[in-house]
Each structure stands twice: as structure tokens, then as C-alpha cells.
Design goal:
This protein is 28% helix and 23% strand. The chain is of the alpha+beta class. The protein has a seven-stranded mixed beta sheet, with helices on both faces. Strands 13-15-11-16 form a four-stranded antiparallel beta sheet, covered by helices on one side. The chain has a three-stranded antiparallel beta sheet with strand order 5-6-20. The two termini are 37 Å apart.
Length: 413
Amino acid sequence: MRGAPAGQSVLRLGTQGDSQDCPRPLQCDPKMTQALDPVDLTARLIRCPSVTPADGGAIPLLAEVLASAGFDCKRVDRGGIANLYARWGKAGANKAFGFNGHTDVVPVGDAKAWTHDPFGAEIVDGVMYGRGACDMKSGVAAFVAAAVDFVAETPPDGAVIITVTGDEEGESKDGTVAILDWMAFNGERMTHCLVGEPTCPFEMGDMMKIGRRGSLTVDFTATGVQGHSAYPHRAKNPLSALVKLLAKLDAEPLDRGTQHFDPSTLAITTVDCGNPAGNVIPARATARINIRFNDTHSGDTLSRWLRSEAEAVAEATGVEIDLKISIAGESFLTPPGELSDMISRAVQAETGRKPQASTSGGTSDARFIKDHCPVVEFGLVGKTMHQVDERVEVAHIRQLKAIYGRILQDYFA
């Protein structure tokens, strides 16, 4: 599927703009349909070339599937990004369980290095290959299939909500954030949410995420005075100032970790001045660091610390140091309790493993949802995400659907 269905229009929305009703197929009685195969749906999604910010037909495909099952579907597009909000049941229900995921994928890279077509969804020896097979079109297919079957077989007293974005792998400004903005403006709500990102490092069922570290990136620009390397006293070396600053920042651990988080980390990721000459002290140099921080810190407290350290080095060296700080997300924690216990029981029942409750890894859209409702992440084994020959075991897709279905049954029991 390489584009939107005929007649499908896309509405570009502002922060609190209106949504667009998705067209409904003629047959929309969920009781007339068979169980939805998550493997087939995964394959159809992989064949949509949805490299951020392109949609490739993925969101219209999901809207068609969900509308056929009786979900009220809205397109909540913003900034050229395709987003979908789908609800079965009444708005504002006392119990409204939500699933969140994304259909956008990272670029293929060198297509010649792939053993199989990156958008072919080929199955070989029980393994499906394709960009997004692991992260995370299979996860989306699994929770969509579980939700469709659940509302058809056991219509719940409450609402089941599906939110899917095309902007998780990109800047993440017009994806899940846009959906949550639209929900707040229109009085829509989830009482709990599960994000279907890959969470298991080794075996299916071995880990779920109850929180995430925050992420902060800093670009330093040091400006001094150019000069001859034989006469360093006549120059102000920006590299020397940056090296001193980076050494100070890297000298001591940021913290020792907390109850649910590992110690925060600071990584120096680049130092550069673009200087081709060996006998010239440059006038300008840059560096970048990335900090992954736990709940000991906030983006604000770390920013103040970094500025203070930079000012001290600048005063000591006479080199001007400017900072550009970007905070991708704050650390957060959904304390262990009913939601994580329910997910753990479902995972253990289907896999025989009790998942470890972790806060490791990078960021996800759960960092936005945590301000809306309690959120936990559980999904597939993530070994091959973003790699050449990204793949998923077909059996794991079906197993994940069963886990999500059990969670829905327990939630509305």
C-alpha cells in the first residue's frame, strides 16, 4: 500500500485544531468479521514506506481496519505529520484503556546491505524481515488486533483507545503531543495507557518499562583569539578552554542512582574546530555532550549546573563559551502498582516469564503520555531495531497480541 486510499483527504491542524472523521467502509459490524491476524497486519504496515515524516499509507490502513471494527476514528494531523485517534466506546468513560505506538520508521540506510527487501515483509523460517518489523509496526499490529477482537467478543463497560503517530522517530513535536493536545481540547481521555515499544532486551517477556531517564543535549561554542602555535600567549585557545570544561564535567559521577534508576550518565559525543593547520590556534571550537538523567535531576537543575561550570571556565581562561541546551524529555516514573502488576501477570501467563520493571534505555512517547495518565511500556524483543535486516519472529507477534488481549480482559473484568 503506497498511498492514501482514493478520496482520503488530509487536514493539517493547529495545536488545538479540529480533527477529521476517517471514512468508514460499508461493512463495519465487528461481529461479522473473523479474528484479526496481527501477522498479516504487520506485513501490510511494513509494505507502507513510512520513513519519517512520510506516512506511506500506514495511518489510513489502520483507520480503515479500526473503523471496520466500530471504532470512531479521527485524523489528528499536524505539521505535515499523519496521526490517528480511534476510540471504541463513549468519550469520557470512567475506564478508558489506551494503547500508543508509531508507524514511522528510520531510514533504510544502504539497501544493498539488506538480505531482504526492507519494505517487502518477507517471511523466512518463521521470521519476518522489514524496516519497522521490530520498531514498531508489529507492536502496533498486535495491539490493534487485540483491541478489535476484544471489543467484538467482550464489549467492555468503558472505552478502548488507540493512538498512533507518524512522528516518533523524528522531532516528536507533531505526533503524540499533537494527539494529546487534541484530546485535551476535545475532552477525550485515557485512564491508563500502554506503549507498545520493544522493551525486551533478550527474551520475549523479560522486561517492561515503568519509567524513562531524561535526555539533555548541550552544544558548546567556545570563541577565543586565533594565533600562531609558536606564540600561544598571544592567542586565546578555545580548545584548551573546552578541554578544561569537559574534564570538569566528566570528572565526577552525576549521582549514585536511585531506587528505580541507574546512575545518570554524561557522554562527550564530539569535539571539533575544523582546523586543517598544525601551527594555528583556532578562534572557534565546538563540543557536544549528552546526559541521560534519573529522577535526582531535572532539565532545569542540570542546565543551571552546566551554565555555572561554563561561566567559571570562561572567567578563568578569557574564552567566551556559549551553550545551546536541548531537553528531549524529563525523567519520569510510574510507581509499581496496579497497572504494572496487571501487565506483569499477563506477560507471565503468556510467556512464563515475569518481566523486570526497568527504567533503562532511551526516550519514548511515554514521556508525553505520563502527564495525561499512568503509563507503562511493554513490547517485543528489540535486538534488531534500526539495524540492517530488522526482523521479528512471527510467533512473537501472535504472542504479543495474546498478552495485550489478556491485559484488556483483566482491565475491564
